[in-house]
């Protein structure tokens, strides 16, 4: 097995919440859900261990039937010596780490909305999360 420069150690759920909009009138209002994606990156005790937080908010309590917030934290180890292409840790996180974590976020959003038993499950589309974050610079934040 070939080792990579960015090794995924696992993830944990930091937040998952579903709030029903009690004032939403399904017969009158059209539902449009636009996910908001946020990314934070922080170094752990050692330089080579990184915690990457990926969060998604779907819906709102003003114009949607519900609001869902999900945030996962992935732990990654950066192997500098294996980064022979000199891609760099920031690029590996923004491209690879986010792509690894997004399916977990999608699954959590689907599960939360499906178990509401009131609306169909909200299934987030497969997207290039790194590109979305690039296009929404306010939604992305790097932390030292």
From TrEMBL:
Organism in which the protein naturally occurs: Levilactobacillus namurensis
GO biological process: protein tetramerization; protein transport
InterPro entries reported for this sequence: SecB (IPR003708), SecB-like_sf (IPR035958)
GO molecular-function term, one example from the UniProt record: unfolded protein binding
Family designation: Belongs to the SecB family.
SUPFAM superfamilies according to UniProt: SecB-like
Pfam families membership: SecB (PF02556)
Protein name as catalogued: Protein-export chaperone SecB
Gene3D superfamilies in alphabetical order: SecB-like
Domain of life the protein comes from: Bacteria
């Amino acid at each position: 097995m070939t080792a990579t420069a960015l090794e995924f150690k696992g993830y944990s759920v930091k937040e998952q919440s579903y709030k029903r909009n009690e004032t939403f009138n399904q017969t009158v209002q059209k539902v449009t859900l636009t996910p908001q994606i946020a990314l934070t990156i922080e170094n752990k005790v050692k330089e080579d261990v990184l915690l990457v937080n990926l969060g998604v908010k779907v819906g709102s309590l003003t114009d949607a039937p519900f609001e869902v917030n999900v945030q996962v934290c992935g732990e990654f180890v950066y192997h500098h010596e294996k980064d022979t292409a000199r891609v760099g840790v920031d690029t590996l996180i923004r491209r690879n780490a986010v792509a690894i974590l997004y399916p977990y976020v999608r699954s959590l959003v689907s599960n939360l909305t499906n178990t509401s038993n009131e609306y169909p499950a909200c299934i987030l589309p497969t997207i290039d999360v790194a590109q979305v974050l690039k296009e929404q610079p306010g939604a992305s934040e790097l932390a030292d």
